[in-house]
Amino acid sequence: MKILLLLILCFSGAFQTASAQIQKNMKLEISVMGVPPGEQSRINAVYPVDAGGNIKMWEIGTIRAAGLTATALAKKIENAYKAAQIYTSPNIVVQKIGDVEGELQQLVTVTGSVNRPGTVPYIRGMTLAQAIAAAGGPSTFGTTKRVHVYREGKKYLLSPRTNDTHKLERIYPNDTVEVDQVKAWESGGE
User: Fold this and answer.
1) Which of 72, 90, 102, 167 would be a feasible disulfide site paired with 68, CB 3.0-4.6 Å?
2) Which residues are paired to 108 by β-bridges?
3) Which residues contact 61 (CB under 8 A, 6 or more apart)?
4) Average pLDDT, the chain
C-alpha cells in the first residue's frame, strides 16, 4: 500500500511539473517593469509560442520557451535584455493564458503612440496602414510621419503620412510596428 501511495505521489508530482511548463502552441502574456513607461509598450503583449517552442521578442529575437516554467522564461528574457545592453534592470512577468486554438494565430505587434498598443491578428496581405488602424490609429500624440518597422532583427523607417507608397508597405507575421510621438516643435500633429 505504501508503495502504491508513493508511486501515485511521484506521478502526480511529475504531472504537475510537466503541466507547469510552457508548451508549444500556448499563449503567454509578457510584461516588463523597471523600464520607462514608453518602453513598456514595446514588450507588453500576448506572445504565441510557435510550433517550434519559441517566442519572438522585440530587439532580442527568438527565445526558446517550451519546457520552461513562466518564472524561468521571465529570467531568461531579463538576462537576454541585459546581455544585449538594452535594459540594465528589467523585471519581466510571464503569465500563461491558454492554448492557441487550432492553427497558431499569426500576430503583428503595434506599439508606441497608438490608441490600443499590443498585438493584432495578422491578415494575409496586411499593409502598414491597416496594422496601425487595427491598433486604433495614432493616439492624440502619435504621428505617422515616422513609423519604425522591426523585422527579423532589422529596423526600417517609413513615413506613411507623407509617402503613399509607405501606406501600402506589406507587414508580415511577427513584425513590430512602432508609431512615433509628435515632437514639440512640429505643428499640426496628425
Assistant:
1) 72
2) 120
3) 152, 153
4) 82
